[in-house]
Amino acid sequence: MSSLASNKLRAGLTLLGIVIGVTAVITLMAMGRGVQESIRESIESLGSNLLYVTPGLSESGGGAFAFFRNFGGGAGDSEALTMDDAYAMLDTAYAPSVAAVAPEKSPSAVSGQVLARGNETFAEVLGVTPEYEFVRNHPIGSGSFISHGHVLNNSMVAVIGASVAEELFGQRDPIGQTIRLNVESFRVGPGGLGDVLDIGRLFTVIGVLESQEEGIGPFGSADYKVLVPITAVHYRLSIDRTVPGEIRVDTINVQAVDSDSTESAEREITALLRLRHRLTEENDFTVSDQQQTIETLEETTNVLVLFLGSIAGISLLVGGIGIMNIMLVSVTERTREIGIRKSMGAKRRDILLQFVVEASMLSLTGGLVGLALGFGISRVLDGRGDFGPGGEFNMVVTGDVALLAVIVSVAIGLFFGIYPATRAARLHPIDALRYE
Amino acid sequence: MIRLEDVTKIYRMGEVEVGALQGVSLDIDEGEIVAIMGPSGSGKSTLMNVIGCLDVPTSGRYVLDGQDVAGVSDNRLSEIRGRQIGFVFQTYNLLPRLTARANVELPLVYGHGSNRRRRALEALDRVGLGDRANHKPAELSGGQQQRVGIARALVKQPRILLADEPTGNLDSQSSEEIMEILKELNRNEGLTLILVTHERDIASQAERVVSMLDGKVVSDTTANLEGAS
Which ipTM value was assigned to this complex? Predict the structure, then answer.
């Protein structure tokens, strides 16, 4: 042990390899976990009693697919959900567990161009009903939300997200201003070929949503949304017309009466829709809840976390090789000492143990320093950085990762210490004593 | 106590085989002081290594305290060394980073190691270095370092003390002190003392001188101690 202290610079440099490795593991894993946490929070902020009904049957309940489908436009012809389907769920005789429904429909493209006063931005354009405001928890900041009257009259009005408002109008009040929405719409023709149509329409801004901060990417940040009456999307921004009065929707957001009744709501909706769609075999729609959505997303993000972790793991491995290197040098340098110890009655096991313990102490120290450093960096980075809405770092250091990093660093010391230690233990006492 | 029967030791140095010991037979009784003499290359160090269980003979029998040492395992050899034999080296072979006391404690770390500190201090007292226990080897004179070496060899109370040129690096004054300590241990505790040396006046202090040449014992004489000093 004292030999480590005697060559502080060398021990320190060796340590550095492990320190950097463990720091990288902790920081990158914290980052990965942070992303997971943000996603979970943004989904949970929608309320735990929310269900989504989407057209088409999804194999694994896949909430994530349901989410993505939102932006991909309508589903195939045979699998369709309509406004009537949505409002049928409000029938307390069929679905007593349903408190509110909020159907939504987007023009085909993922995002649309929004123009006003020479400024332009891209936003998620979504046709909604008045219920959307509270079902999806998008409180209005100023002005007013879309009313039933707007929906009935296909009014060309829009409620815009805080970021959209700022980018288009800066400090000016957007209420009453006119914006132009340019969207792409397409229709699948009889031969499977699609017509793509660029549609541009003028809308009057009637409200601005409250800035939401949380939520990243496509999941829930209201700041980059432009909400218009669902009928306006159907009649003015879409060429996807069906039977008059039958308005197709992409997703029906359903609020159950409370979080305990989501399961019964799911059952009731399924039964009701099977009845309405006159189904005898499998469903042509998918009902998914928060938990399923979270689980699916976590499966996806786990890959990300694992990926980040393994990159960091490589640097840990390099650190381990550094330890092996330094231990080999140490064995050579201390050949004479090994000879002395052996002549004093030390067995192979004793020498082996001495060097293995030394190597693992070295890596343990490195592991602990790296842990502290990783914690520190995560602390400093947490809540900083600016990558757009909800794009600040969210660092979550979990106990299991910390423990794992320390255990792995000790294991690396053991693993890379064993070879040099075996070499030391095998030395013949006479040769070792003679070594100059 | 020590019985060697026609012991040979052959080293392989590259392509050439070197017969370091070529049929050595030797008996050493408990409590004897034996000096092994001879020019370098005569095989005296190899003989010493074999007796000290640092090396095993290529052929022949070596019986130490009734036990045949030929063919025992590496670990068993370590055990025998640790229990029966104390080594004193020409170059002291102290660990420079450790204090005198810690150096003396070293053999106790391997094996039965209760009361390590107290036993180490006792051993240092016996060689007259009780007041230097916390000094590092570099802070001690050559004679003092060798006394630490002797204390380290003594601490496990071995039956045999093997000293390889114990005074080879010391001035005559220190040499005499070291020899006095060694002889006293032999007198008071009946320790078997085996010295390897090429200095005549050191050898003359032994009661028995074994001379070696080219891997063989060429003379084995028991001298009159009174006449020598």
Answer: 0.89
